[in-house]
Write a structure and sequence with these properties.
single chain; 248 residues; alpha+beta; Serine Threonine Protein Phosphatase 5, Tetratricopeptide repeat; 5-stranded antiparallel beta sheet; 3-stranded antiparallel beta sheet
Length: 248
């Protein structure tokens, strides 16, 4: 019988929402990201306190929606949220959805952590900051062997298929489907986001392309992504993308 395995990772360091306060001397700014405490804060919490693991909290409390088990949906759910200056959560946004039922389940469990966060700080002052959490939902294929699918390998497979359709067969519509599959497994993989953005640009969806490339930049652009850029020089979005990556 199939069972589901959940893997959780905090995928991005907190990003501060205080751009207007940045000083000219960046070395003077000390930014501390939000930290999960696991308890409703009624007393001052210091940096030395031992905090409950956010990953452990989610694993212990997150229940895989029964409605999704029948169709075997799997992938990496990526959610962004804001930790306010008083440790509350707001501005939930699903960046990559495995299934609507999973979106709802994760939103509900994140709400239960309101007040369980030590707010991020800038030079000692509490600030609202954003965090992202990635949760992998994997089916165990052979329970006796404890085997699960390798999401990295799946993402590479769909990256290869998408690139073939885009560059060799000049079929951005079909390539888009492969890139979508790859991003379902690795939503912050910059090469996949680059390829999907180029597909969208070729098909006239410039807004969608810009959104993918903005995500690519925010999650970090690898040297590999820069190196393969020339492979796309005959595509419509190449010039814009080249300018974007040169400013990296």
């Amino acid at each position: 019988m199939k069972t589901i395995t959940i893997f959780i990772a905090i995928v991005l360091a907190a990003s501060s929402l205080f751009a207007q306060d940045v000083k000219s001397n960046l070395e003077e700014i000390k930014v501390t990201p939000p930290r999960f405490t696991g308890i409703v804060q009624t007393v001052e919490i210091s940096e030395e306190d031992d905090f409950v693991s956010f990953e452990k909290y989610l694993i212990n409390n997150l229940k895989y929606p029964q409605e999704v088990i029948s169709n075997g949906a799997e992938g990496t759910e990526l959610v962004r949220f804001e930790v306010t200056a008083n440790g509350k959560l707001s501005s939930f946004e699903v960046l990559n959805s495995v299934a609507p039922e999973i979106d709802e389940a994760i939103h509900d469990i994140l709400l239960t952590t309101c007040g369980m966060w030590k707010a991020g700080e800038t030079n000692g002052e509490p600030r609202s900051m954003t965090k992202e959490v990635a949760i992998e939902f994997k089916w165990k294929q052979f329970e006796s062997l404890n085997q699960t699918k390798d999401f990295d390998e799946l993402a590479k497979h769909y990256m290869t298929k998408g690139t073939e359709q885009l560059l060799l067969k000049n079929n951005p519509q079909k390539a888009l489907k492969f890139f979508n599959h790859g991003i379902n497994y690795r939503p912050n993989e910059d090469c996949l986001l680059m390829g999907r953005g180029l597909c969208k640009y070729e098909m006239g969806d410039k807004k969608g392309a810009m959104a993918d490339w903005a995500r690519m930049q925010s999650s970090g652009t690898s040297d590999e992504a820069v190196a393969i850029l020339n492979d796309y020089k005959n595509l419509k979005g190449y010039a814009y993308l080249e300018t974007l990556l040169q400013s990296k």
